[in-house]
Write a structure and sequence with these properties.
Radius of gyration: 18 Å
Number of strands: 5
Number of helices: 10
Number of domains: 1
Mean pLDDT: 90
Largest sheet: 5 strands, parallel
Distance between the termini: 17 Å
Low-confidence stretches: none
CATH superfamily: 5'-nuclease
CATH class: Alpha Beta
Strand content: 5-15%
Helix content: 55-70%
Structural class: alpha/beta
CATH topology: Rossmann fold
Order of helices and strands: EHHEHHEHHEHHHEH
CATH architecture: 3-Layer(aba) Sandwich
């Protein structure tokens, strides 16, 4: 079984604009055929609803008819219907204390990456990448620990979060991770931290994302 943790922006792009609808059908078909589970952080579920409302009632980028339609559709897709009358496409992945602990493995390296690349003033106060974005990688660490590195992917439409994720994977050693949580890591920390791997992160808007996902799913294109 493959496990795919979806970022908020992937879902907003799909429901509001139909972005990569064929690609999303690929995910949904593999989920319905029990080859993959599509996970959404419970905080991201709330964030999706908030963005729908903001785009309709504040920014006016979607119409009220669109708002009510996609709000209802997304509500159905994250809910297990009465008597299992319809498939539950997405499964809630609750933010827990374990993920907060794992976040310590993410924050320092992410801030160092931002400082080194200084993208769009990313290190300017108030312009840091959001805590929730980085917690998505932290949740991926726990998912990796539970299901195995070959079976887990974080999918984001945020290029900066993708770049940070790739950078973390490139420095996934006990020494690098221990340096994030202790000034002077002990041998016990080095030994205990080794099994916790940074998750694979892929970019939703990449031109080859469909081929990447098919390969991850073991060559299955769905129905």
């Amino acid at each position: 079984m493959k496990h795919i943790l979806l970022d908020t922006n992937v879902l907003v792009n799909y429901y509001e604009r139909g972005s990569k609808s064929a690609f999303m059908r690929l995910l949904h078909q593999n989920a319905q055929q029990h080859r993959a589970l599509l996970h959404i952080s419970n905080v991201c579920i709330a964030e999706v609803f908030k963005i729908f409302a903001s785009h309709c009632f504040c920014e006016k980028t979607i119409t009220p008819d669109t708002y009510w339609r996609i709000k209802e559709q997304f509500s159905r897709d994250v809910t297990r219907s009465f008597r299992y009358a319809a498939p539950q496409l997405y499964h809630e992945f609750r933010l827990t204390a374990y993920h907060i602990v794992h976040a310590d493995l993410v924050f320092r390296r992410a801030m160092e990456y931002l400082q080194a690349h200084d993208r769009d003033g990313a290190c300017t106060p108030g312009k840091h990448i959001s805590t929730m974005d980085l917690l998505l990688i932290a949740q991926g660490i726990e998912m990796n620990h539970l299901h195995g590195d070959d079976n887990v992917m974080v999918l984001t439409g945020d290029k900066l979060l993708y770049d940070i994720g790739v950078n973390l994977r490139a420095h996934d050693t006990p020494e690098e991770k221990a340096a994030c949580i202790a000034q002077h890591p002990t041998p016990e920390i080095l030994a205990n931290i080794a099994p916790f791997r940074y998750p694979r992160v892929e970019y939703f808007h990449a031109s080859d994302i469909t081929n990447t996902m098919v390969a991850f799913l073991g060559g299955h294109r769905g129905a």
